[in-house]
Amino acid sequence: MSVRYIDSKKTFLLQTRNSAYQMKISEYGYLLHLYYGERLEDEDLGYLIQMQDRGFSPNPNEAGNDRTFSLDVLPQEFSSDGSCDYRLSSIEVKNGDGSYAFVGKVVRHEIYAGKYTLAGLPSLRPSGQDTVDTLEIWLQDEATQLTAVLSYCVFEEKDVITRTVRVVNQSPETIYLNRLMSMTMDFMDSDYDFIHLDGRHTMEREFHRDPLHYGIQTIGSFRGASSHQHNPFAVLCEHQANEDYGRCYGFSFVYSGNFVCKVEKDQYDQMRIIMGIHPKHFSYQLKPGESFAAPEVVLAYSGKGLTHLTHLYHNIYRNNLCQSPYVKEARPILINSWEAAYFDFDEKKILDIAREAVDMGVEMLVLDDGWFGNRNDDSAALGDWDVNTEKLPRGLTGLSEEIHAMGLKFGLWIEPEMVSENSELYRRHPDWCLQMPRRQPSRGRYQLVLDLSRSDVRDYIVTSINEVLDSTKIEYVKWDMNRFITDAWSIIAEKEKQGEIYHRYILGLYDIMDRIILTHPEILFCGCSGGGGRFDPGMLYYQPQIWCSDNTDAVCRLKIQYGTTFVYPVSALESHVSVCPNHQTGRTVPIKTRGIAAMDGILGYELDSTCLTKAEKEICREQIGRYRKYYALITEGDYYRLTNPYEFAEYVAWEHVSQDKKEALLSLVLTERESNDAQRYVKAKGLIPQMHYRVEGMEGTFSGQLLMSAGLPVPSSLLQYEAVQYEIRAV
Ligand code: DGJ
Fold first, then answer.
1. How far apart are CA 653 and CA 629, in angstroms?
2. How confident is the model over 496-526, as pLDDT tens digits?
3. Which end of the chain has less neighbouring CB within 10 Å, N or C?
């Protein structure tokens, strides 16, 4: 079993193929964290904790006069609050007596085969041959009887451990849970860098790496969605760690709403990281007997650098997260109407785009925003999911039939969570949106947010969207969400429960996704929130791909995709070729480069195909053929970032390598060019050193070692923004 309790030493030992995790019950019943890192068999690492009298760090009463026992210093698994530990806390409660303390001690544990369930929340599932075991540890506060149940699930072969916490109110009083972190981890050292992916609308998931300093470093979202601004993912790694070397710890939060991740470097050079739902405006009422389950955190450890950490996440997110049958199927190459026509289209325009796209080898037409109600710009009609017959006189059915007759599949855009004030829905139900008493709700993109904590609102959404999806043949749906939450207050909730609304919104969202997405397994769903504003594992549980960014500039995309690949598999990144000058940046980049950049994901097109020249169409046709040829390699191969665009400006390169290492696709975009430049080389990774390979376009064969050590010359003929792609194949 991958989980053991060693009674004589009071230690819990979790082991994956290459990592180990150890905890110990202290003499007074506190659960101490001892180790997470390289796999080891040692059963008691308690010696690592050296007791010392630390001034001004208080001692729990039961320690008597032992001034060396302080929760302010000891590494813990779930920190207490309001008693002795001044560092970041795992929990904050308001007890029935008005006190704020929670002091949890181990009262029991259970080990079982299989995985815990998290009702109403997305989480990883064992798949295929996975052996998974679960450990649950009950920490109870003697004074209040409030209990926190820590759950750990070990995915042994996948080298991953998941964690969550459930708080059960076993006290006779109503309590308020004001913070519950899904994961707390203490380290006895702190010489680490903190890697996080941050950005903004149209420039998401930019890579940032900072050394830890004393005090607290924080990322998070309070926007009601995981957000463009920070992604719910972090890495702690040694300062010396790079793609191929060093100890790295990954933390990925399976949740789509408010989150926080904080790292604290304390006075004794120790480090604590916490991750969970953002505690701001969070207050959950728990009556006696009620419980609250926190979303899951996925932990991975790599002792050999960031690339290996990436491979662990790609592997588990490809195989153990998404429910859709499409996760393993080739996704259709689509053309999307948004940048082609925005709101300005009619049936003829869409059919013209489709007709030209057929000729390019495209497989699906996706009709984006603007097909319903009186939606001629973004100020109206959200919530009215009836077709606009002025634009589409034969309805969705007429259009879908024509599209299918061309041999294309048909996809549709929806934005179910929102309502426009200028809509029939809002006129009928102005009380259905989130809004606070005595205040007018804030607008975002002219729209308001429907109150998904209400079951009647959810029922309306499910019925109206399912009617659309069942009304005609639709093979793809882009589920968009174009503003963040404000006014998190529900007309129907009691005032003591208003602190639950942000989370209840997300539970409501998962509920409608269960009833819309999971009941339509034949439809490929794509997530979207103004591009990548909700790019998180919670969404990837439902949708195998997410529109990566509203920025379709290929050069910007290189950075966006670079950051995104640290945790999310290439098969999750929807990426399109658009026109130049690019609509977001005005930059002009050759169409070949746009294709190579978009092939680092799920390739699609987002342009008016009727305006392409013959030569451009020919290039697209060739791109699509190449993408199809390498689809399995791109979406299932191991991913290597060959350059860091934040440190090296000349070119950006990446590589997909098949699992047997006999095939690779190396792509390179020249991002900076000066006259009479130095000769550059690009070094491959992940090949078998002794194996010989042919490289597309080059004479002879090369050993894997040679390609990885000396590399390939970057063609000096490449001009700025030109790109090259090499197939590397074992002979
Ligand atoms: C934001 C999306 O990211 C775009 O691709 C497009 O679908 C628009 N919304 C439509 O309103």
1. 20
2. 999 999 999 999 999 999 999 999 999 999 9
3. C
Q: For residues 645-684, b (16+ Cβ closer than 10 Å) or e, as one string?
A: beeeebbbbbbbbbeebbbbbbbbbbbeeeeeeeebebbb
648-685: pLDDT as tens digits:
999 999 999 999 999 999 999 999 999 999 999 999 99
Beta strands in 278-331 (DSSP E): 284-286, 291-293, 296-302
* Residue to mutate (ligand 1; options 550, 575, 584; most atoms within 8 A of CB): 550
Interval between CA 547 and ligand 1 midpoint (Å): 9
pLDDT of residue 81: 84
pLDDT band at 612, cuts 50/70/90?
A: very high
C-alpha span between 544 and 561 (Å, rounded): 16
387: DSSP letter: B
Q: If DSSP codes are grouped into helix, strand and coil, which group holds residue 338?
A: helix
Pick the catalytic residue from 616, 636, 655, 663: 616
Distance CA 439, CA 417 (A): 21
- pLDDT of 128 reads 85
Ligand 1 within 6 A of 574 CB?
A: no
Residue 663 Cα to ligand 1 middle (Å) = 36
Nearest ligand 1 atom to alpha carbon 342:
10
Average pLDDT across the chain, whole number? 97
End-to-end CA distance of the chain: 42
DSSP state, residue 48: G
Determine the pLDDT at residue 80: 85
Q: Does residue 368 have its Cβ closer than 6 Å to ligand 1?
A: yes
What angle is formed at CA 447 by the lines to CA 442 and CA 451, rounded to 5 degrees? Answer: 80
Does residue 369's CB lie within 6 angstroms of at least one atom of ligand 1? yes
The Cα–Cα gap between 152 and 165 comes to: 9
State the virtual CA torsion across 324, 326, 327, 330 in degrees, nearest 10. Answer: 180
Whether the link from the prior residue into 581 is cis, omega within 30° of 0, is yes
Question: Average of pLDDT values for 680-691?
Answer: 98
Model confidence over 86-132: pLDDT tens digits?
999 999 999 999 999 999 999 999 999 999 999 999 999 999 889 99
616 in active site: yes
What does residue 165 show for φ and ψ, rounded to 5 degrees? -135, 140
**pLDDT value for 727:** 98
β partners of residue 115: none
Closest CA to 186 of 249, 125, 123: 249
82 has a pLDDT exceeding 90 = no
Q: How far is CA 69 from CA 9, 54, 63, 65, in A?
A: 19, 9, 7, 9
CA dihedral 564, 565, 566, 567 (to 10 degrees): 80
Task: For residues 506 and 176, give the distance between their C-alpha atoms in angstroms, rounded to a whole number.
Answer: 19
* Candidate from 46-55, 74-83, 486-495, 573-582 with smallest mean pLDDT: 74-83
What are residue 253's DSSP bridge partners?
A: 297
Instruction: Write the residue with the smallest CA distance to atom 9 of ligand 1.
Output: 530
Give distance in angstroms: CA of 416 to centre of ligand 1. 13
The reply to whether the predicted model has a pTM over 0.70 is: yes
Ligand 1 atom at minimal distance to the Cα of residue 413: 7
